[in-house]
Amino acid sequence: MEKIIPLYKCNYTLNKALLDSLCLISYKCGKLASINFTYPKAKLEAEETYYLLLLANKKISKSNLRALERGEKVNNPIEGNSIYALLSHINNFDATTNNGKKHFEDTYFVNKIPYRTNKKIDDFEFELPPASKINPLLNKLYKFFEKNEGISSNLIFAALSIFEIISIAPYKKDNIVLGYFYSRYFLKESCNILKHIPLAKYLYKSKENMNLALLKSVSEGDCVHFFLYFCDLINNCLDELAKSGSKNPSSLSPKVLKMIEKMEKGKFYSSSELLELMNLKSRLGLHKNYIKPALEANLLLMSNPLSPTDRTQRYARKQK
User: Fold this and answer.
1) What was the pLDDT predicted at 147?
2) pLDDT average, residue stretch 252-269
3) Which residues fall within 8 angstroms of residue 215, CB to CB, at 6 or more apart?
4) Is 35 helix (H, G, I), strand (E, B) or coil?
């Protein structure tokens, strides 16, 4: 009987299907970039916090999500504060050295860091390396990134990051969350459009496909199957971006800037209050000509970013 190779010992190869998928991602990114599309930042951070917590088997209420979006702290779950802080400063995260992992640990884990000491963790059926090999394997990964910078695609690095962090499993739990931030770093480095994709949402919704990709990778000793899964996921993210994203205007009209200037800092306004503030009568005109452009330019916060059409939606001037 042929011996099964552990995930962390898998090779990776390139094949035509993977190259085709990478080309499709590049095409979609180029198309979105040419028309200046992006995913609303406030909505993205709220959604990603929600789904990252689900990936970590934790839940957060919509009211607590709104509190995070307003810059407030929440008590349940406490990790919501940590994830939102990491997402808000995603540009400071570095996955190419151990500094990124340390930054994650200092921010995410509220109490003691749950380092893995055994070869088994809950809800993970694959063989893991001994705890003594975790740091050497991570250092080997960083050296691989350094050696192949400018040679391999950052999209490959993004896929490899999640695969390796899951396979090495430095913690007893929540390894997927660390893998997410490593992957997010390389997506950001790949192109500006990929900074805005709802990655956590699709990781959570495709957990079954992820497990199948891991099973196929371990059975054949080649993580190209996981790479294909990841590229399909990115393509699906880009399709949502095209449908749900917002076109960034090259310049804002004076009336939008006037509304922002009139709004008091830290105060949330209903649509009725904004109509009165701007001396307008048409609610439709307010949303089309004022609120929508301001949201697209990331100048407004929503009280409920997960439900943009909420009848009780309120808006606040975004603090710079």
Assistant:
1) 93
2) 90
3) none
4) coil
- Cβ proximity of 228 and 21 under 8 Å: yes
Q: Which fold has domain 254-317?
A: Arc Repressor Mutant, subunit A (1.10.10)
pLDDT digits (tens, 9 = 90+) for 1-18: 345 678 888 888 889 999
Handedness of CA 281, 285, 289, 294 (dihedral sign): positive
Structure confidence by residue, pLDDT tens digits, 287-312? 999 998 888 777 888 888 777 778 88
Helix (H, G, I), strand (E, B) or coil at 107: helix
Domain boundaries, the chain: 7-247, 254-317
| Number of DSSP helices (H) and strands (E) in the chain, helices first | 15, 5
Topology, domain 7-247: Fic-like fold (1.10.3290)
Rounded distance between C-alpha atoms, residue 97 and residue 319, angstroms: 32
CB 306 within 8 A of CB 315: no
238's tokens: 């880009």
CB neighbours of residue 275 within 10 Å: 17
